[in-house]
Amino acid sequence: MGDVKLNQLSCSHKIIISFFVLMMGYSYLFALLNLQINTRQADGDTSGLGLATIRDIEITYRGNRGESLLVSKINGSMEQYLSTQEEKVLIEEWVSQGRTEQGYQEIQYIFEDNCVRCHPYDEKPDYPLETYDQVYASAQPDMGPSIGKLARFTHYHAFGFTVFSFLLSMVFLFTSFSPPIRLFVAALPFIAMFIDITSWWLTRLISSIFAYTVYLGGMLMAISLAVIIIGSIYDIWFSPVTE
Ligand code: HEC
User: Fold this and answer.
1) pTM for the full predicted model
2) Collapsed DSSP state (helix, strand, coil) of residue 239
3) Residue 29 CB burial class (10 angstroms; 0-12, 13-18, ≥19)
4) Confidence label for 76 from pLDDT (cuts 50, 70 and 90)
5) Which of 119, 121, 142 to mutate to test the pocket of ligand 1 (most atoms within 8 A of CB)?
6) Could you report the per-residue pLDDT of 94-126, keeping only the tens digit for each?
7) What is the enclosing helix (H) or strand (E) of 57?
8) How far apart are CA 42 and CA 39, in angstroms?
9) 92 exposed, middle or buried (CB, 10 Å; 0-12, 13-18, 19+)?
10) Which three-class secondary structure state does DSSP give residue 10?
11) Whose CA is nearest to atom 19 of ligand 1?
């Protein structure tokens, strides 16, 4: 089987294999679109186009841990209800100092004076800010996707990627490039995928440093697919047939 080469196949084989390879590339463009729409805007910067930043990746897999709903709201749509800027600072300090019950005694008046009329326990039970426990919960840091959600996401991606990479790599193995080049290129998507997926988990569980290896894995994936697709099409249609 090692002797069969893409450029020696019948014209109909060449056409169908070319369609397959090109459609895989086309599908991959939608993965990039997804990245543009969903990951690249994670840090709130929605302007223009371009690549996701390390910060976007960090927020996507690890959450925006310095931020909580309470803190983002008192810097956003709820800021207008605070009577002074000091109140905001006091709340932020309480959050950054560990949200203790003791500390809460000193800032409780802020919520009572400014917030509880719209965030009471009975009328708006979905977001009450009347007790220590309620305010504590509203300032829970954003920890990113739950383990369950990330597991589901990984599971779908890992299976899809593996089949996708395997089929493309198999096509590439039948090109007429030298055997070491063929093996190297065909192995790349698997290595890239392993780096990428493992790094999602390391970013979530261990450190945002691994956002860099998520990036590296993603880039390596894109490059290896481009090489496989362009190399296979070139080989099918333009390489000289050697017996
Ligand atoms: C005049 C009524 C009103 C007052 C006063 C008010 N809020 Fe709100 N709050 C709302 C409404 C309406 C929403 C939903 C819309 C939004 O998120 O902007 C909301 C949403 C929130 C949320 C997000 C809830 C969620 O489930 O997304 C937080 C946190 C919050 N408010 C905190 C506060 C704090 C802290 C104060 C006091 C400084 C305050 N609010 C004062 C009306 C109010």
Assistant:
1) 0.72
2) coil
3) exposed
4) confident
5) 119
6) 999 989 999 999 999 999 999 988 887 665 556
7) helix 54-62
8) 5
9) middle
10) coil
11) 78
CB burial of residue 191 (10 Å; 0-12, 13-18, 19+): middle
Helix/strand/coil for 28: helix
Ligand 1 site: residues with CB under 6 angstroms? 69-70, 73-74, 77-78, 81-82, 114-115, 117-119, 127, 129, 138
Q: Which amino acid is at 152?
A: R
DSSP conformational letter for 35: I
Nearest protein CA to atom 25 of ligand 1, as residue: 127
Give which of 62, 11, 65 is closest to 214, Cα–Cα.
62
Shortest-distance Cα residue to atom 22 of ligand 1: 73
Burial 131-153 (b: 16+ CB within 10 A, else e): eeeebbbbbeeeebbeeeebeee
The tokens describing 166, both together, are 């395997």
- Which residue matches tokens 């697709």? 229
Chain-centroid distance of CA 7 in Å reads 38
Q: Is a pLDDT exceeding 60 seen at residue 55?
A: yes
Which pLDDT tens digit goes with each residue over 186-216? 999 999 999 999 999 999 999 999 999 999 9
